[in-house]
Amino acid sequence: MATKKKDELTDHEIKHLEFIQGVINRMGSNSFQMKGWMVVIVSALLAIYADNNAKNGLYVLFAILPTLIFWGLDSYYLQQERKFRGIYKDVAGLSKEPNKKKVLLFEMPIQNYEGGDYSFWNVFFSKTIRWLYAPVIGILLVIYFFLTP
């Protein structure tokens, strides 16, 4: 009969990690879709602006609103992904944090992962998000102030 080493995971722990990884994959997919939808909607509004004979600049300003909304939604999904990554690290025993949280088998306590890297505003202004959405808003403002009659 084989004995289990202290650092080996049981079948239940491995299944738990698979569940968590599934959620992480869905959050990443949702985040990717937010980026795609933002590009589609902003492009559609700019196409209407370009086709409009009067060159009504309100279409350009209206494009800023969905950009901000999708920025927020994308940040939310990435925040959730970070929380589940924290759970994954704690379940797998990979966490290097001194205050590692105890996670029961098949539990996903995202409420225990707050503040710091897990905060919404930390994600909202992170490099990967900021450098996608802020330039889009900047370009829309340049179009409105310099190219709109």
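[next item in queue]
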Amino acid sequence: MVNCIKEMVASRGGKTMSWQNPPNEKIAAVLKEAKTIAVVGLSNNPERTSYQISKAMQAAGYKIIPVNPMVDTVLGEKAYASLKEIDEKIDIINVFRRSEFLPEIAKEALETDSKVFWAQQGVINEEAYDLLTENDFTVIMDLCIKVAHAVL
């Protein structure tokens, strides 16, 4: 089994960042219990990583809810301009946006019924992590949901 736990302590511009993903067992439970994944930044371009990963998760049985104000539908699903517009239960919020956008998306996530915030590989933001964990979210960062699904 691959260890999906990541912890980071790094210095960026003199500021120390620290965050930690939940244990593999918790990540596996999140994936097992989830039925819907709202994908923030999901592109309708089949060449984009967000499309490819979302298509694989859809094929694995998850309902994908695209969140992108620039598209109408992706993978046969109606797209929403923001998380706040979604009128159904969201089990996981999966984010394909740059790290600097995470605090804004995290604030919006607080207005949903979701309790899981998943930032894709290479996407990390301590401000978003702190805000979400202080509000009882399970937060996973810098980890590909498709890879975790495959190995856990």
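[queue empty]
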